[in-house]
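Per your request, structure below.
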């Protein structure tokens, strides 16, 4: 059975393009994609990005791939493109973080729920006019009645792929800034994931306040 490669550009779903056209001419509904980055690391925050398409022209997301299939340079290029489109009003996005301390206290599921709600609130889109696609097993608050969770959504839905890229860029940048404060852990390289080098640094230096105690056994 043929399966789509992670390195194959995602074709825009028909439902996405229909919303683009509808929004461009009717300006009544908004298509939103949501994804998270940083669910699995043993250090650092989890990041959620919500992207809303407003006046995006056909082909704007042509060739996009999910963040895991892209190099850092390519992710930064897509992020720059998104920022430029935001300045023209073609789209908007919001990124929300939940800290390691919050994750340890309340759990990763609640951290994701809070971050999703916060990101959507920052977009200021009326819930009744929002049509949301979310990646994996995450959900928007119940007042957003038009929502659909898509398994492997970052590989199948372009607006989710863009959300994954923006979330990844924001989180990686933050972890690299943290690396300058918490030296010796290699956060600039592994950005909090549980690599062999990261665990070796923990054995040598102990835990810092960025570490998720509940993730380390």
């Amino acid at each position: 059975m043929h399966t789509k490669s992670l390195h194959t550009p995602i074709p825009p779903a028909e439902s996405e393009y229909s919303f683009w056209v509808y929004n461009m001419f009717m300006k009544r509904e908004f298509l939103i994609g949501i994804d998270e980055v940083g669910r699995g690391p043993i250090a650092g925050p989890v990041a959620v990005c919500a992207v809303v398409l407003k006046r995006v022209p056909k082909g704007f997301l042509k060739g996009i791939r999910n963040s895991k299939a892209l190099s850092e340079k390519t992710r930064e290029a897509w992020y720059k493109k998104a920022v430029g489109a935001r300045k023209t009003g073609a789209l908007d996005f919001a990124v929300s973080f939940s800290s390691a301390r919050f994750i340890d206290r309340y759990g990763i599921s609640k951290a994701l729920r809070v971050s999703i709600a916060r990101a959507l609130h920052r977009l200021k889109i009326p819930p009744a006019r929002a049509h949301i696609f979310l990646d994996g097993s995450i959900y928007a608050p119940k007042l957003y009645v038009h929502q659909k969770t898509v398994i492997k959504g970052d590989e199948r839905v372009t607006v989710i792929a863009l959300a994954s890229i923006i979330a990844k860029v924001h989180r990686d940048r933050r972890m690299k800034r943290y690396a300058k404060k918490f030296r010796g852990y290699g956060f600039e390289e592994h950005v909090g994931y549980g690599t062999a080098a990261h665990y070796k640094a923990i054995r040598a230096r102990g835990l810092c306040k960025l570490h998720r105690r509940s993730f380390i056994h």
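The beta strands are 30-37, 46-53, 91-98, 130-135, 147-150.

Regards,
D.
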